[in-house]
């Protein structure tokens, strides 16, 4: 091979080696300078909610709010029509009136006319006893003198004892009329009255359920029935979102928990506003066996479990809404 050919061959080798070196240097610069794209953890904003429902079935008579309205505790949300409850109230009030009359009668005792009638019967029985006693004494004396037979004496004695028993019975009736009802009867009448009052209070509570009141401040997020529709016992009428109790929920693989610990502050990006928000972690819990796992046993390592992480904004972030995305790099 001539010197010119060797020189040309060497130039080609130098060019190849130089090109390979440039490629390697560029790759190293890109790896160390640019680095890898950071892994993203995506979550969403959530709020506490409570459902408004009634203990009694009824028909929606009026809806005082609409979706998106902000309500305060004590505001009227909906009114239900329940004629069955009104009928129950009439029954309960009637039972209460009857129980109150019986209790009053037991406490007051017998009427004056009844006491006076019992007294007259007692006086009549005493007069009868007095006559029977005198008749028996006369017959006894005649029997002792041998004028009256034993049969007549026994009949007079029987009449005397019968009059005595009748007088005692009349006396007992008079005492009962004066003393009134027994203590047990008074207690029973009072218990019946208390029971009737309890029934009225129960129906009043059901009537109160026909007017639904907001329990806490919040925003009406959903209304389910329309005016005129029937709702059953416990059926949700609307959902109230408590906007002052807001947090972000993230599903984080355990190999990404390096800087995410209980009480730690993290920075999340809010795409809706193109801003970042500082949040404090207050809840961490594994998702259980049903959650997504990342299998790594194939390359001789281990499975990675997923954790549910919740964090609240450190400061109030205006405009943040439930369902908005949160990004952690």
Give the integer mean of the pLDDT values: 79
Strand content: 25-35%
Largest sheet: 8 strands, antiparallel
Q: What's the total number of strands? A: 12
For the termini, the CA-CA separation is: 62 Å
- Series of secondary-structure elements, N-terminal to C-terminal: HEEEEHHHHEEEEEEEE
- Helical region count? 5
**Structural classification:** alpha+beta
The unreliable regions are none
Structural Rg: 49 Å
> Can you give the helix content as a percent range?
40-55%
Question: Given the C-alpha coordinates, what overall shape results?
Answer: rod-shaped
Q: Care to give the gist of this entry?
A:
The two termini are 62 Å apart. The protein is α+β, with helices and mostly antiparallel strands and 329 residues long. Helices cover 45% and strands 26% of the residues.
Could you explain how this protein is built, in words?
With 329 residues, the protein is α+β, with helices and mostly antiparallel strands. It is 45% helix and 26% strand. The strands form two sheets. Strands 1, 3, 6, 8, 9, 10, 11 and 12 form an eight-stranded antiparallel sheet that branches. Strands 5-4-2-7 form a four-stranded antiparallel sheet.
Structural key phrases:
329 residues, alpha+beta, 4-stranded antiparallel β-sheet, 12 strands, rod-shaped
Indicate the topology.
Elements lengths: L2 H32 L6 E13 L4 E6 L6 E2 L4 E6 L1 H26 L3 H33 L5 H30 L3 H27 L1 E3 L4 E6 L6 E2 L4 E18 L11 E6 L4 E12 L19 E8 L11 E4 L1
Antiparallel strand pairs: 1-8, 1-12, 2-4, 2-7, 3-6, 4-5, 6-8, 8-11, 9-10, 10-11
Helix pairs in contact: 2-5, 3-4
């Amino acid at each position: 091979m001539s010197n010119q050919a060797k020189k040309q061959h060497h130039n080609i080798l130098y060019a190849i080696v130089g090109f390979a070196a440039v490629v390697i240097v560029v790759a190293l610069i890109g790896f160390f300078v640019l680095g890898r794209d950071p892994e993203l953890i995506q979550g969403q904003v959530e709020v506490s909610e409570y459902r408004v429902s009634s203990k009694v079935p009824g028909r929606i008579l009026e809806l005082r709010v609409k979706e998106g309205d902000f309500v305060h505790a004590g505001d009227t949300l909906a009114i239900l029509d329940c004629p069955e409850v009104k009928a129950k109230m009439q029954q309960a009030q009637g039972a209460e009136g009857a129980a109150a009359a019986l209790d009053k009668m037991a406490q007051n005792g017998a009427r004056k006319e009844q006491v006076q009638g019992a007294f007259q019967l007692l006086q009549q029985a005493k007069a009868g006893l007095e006559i029977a006693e005198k008749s028996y004494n006369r017959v006894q004396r005649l029997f002792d003198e041998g004028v009256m037979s034993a049969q007549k004496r026994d009949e007079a004695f029987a009449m005397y004892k019968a009059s005595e028993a009748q007088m005692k019975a009349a006396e007992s009736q008079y005492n009962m009329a004066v003393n009134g009802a027994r203590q047990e009867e008074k207690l029973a009448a009072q218990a019946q009255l208390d029971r009737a009052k309890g029934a009225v209070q129960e129906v009043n509570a059901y009537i109160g359920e026909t007017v639904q009141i907001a329990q806490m401040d919040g925003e009406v997020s959903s209304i389910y029935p329309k005016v005129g529709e029937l709702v059953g016992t416990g059926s949700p009428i609307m959902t109230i979102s408590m906007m002052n109790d807001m947090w972000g929920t993230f599903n984080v693989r355990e190999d990404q928990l390096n800087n995410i610990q209980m009480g730690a502050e993290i920075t999340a990006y809010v795409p809706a506003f193109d801003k970042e928000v500082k949040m404090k972690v207050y809840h961490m819990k594994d998702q259980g066996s049903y959650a997504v796992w990342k299998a790594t046993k194939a390359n001789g390592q281990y499975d990675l479990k997923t954790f549910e992480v919740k964090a609240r904004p450190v400061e109030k972030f205006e405009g943040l809404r439930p369902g908005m995305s949160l990004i952690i790099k």
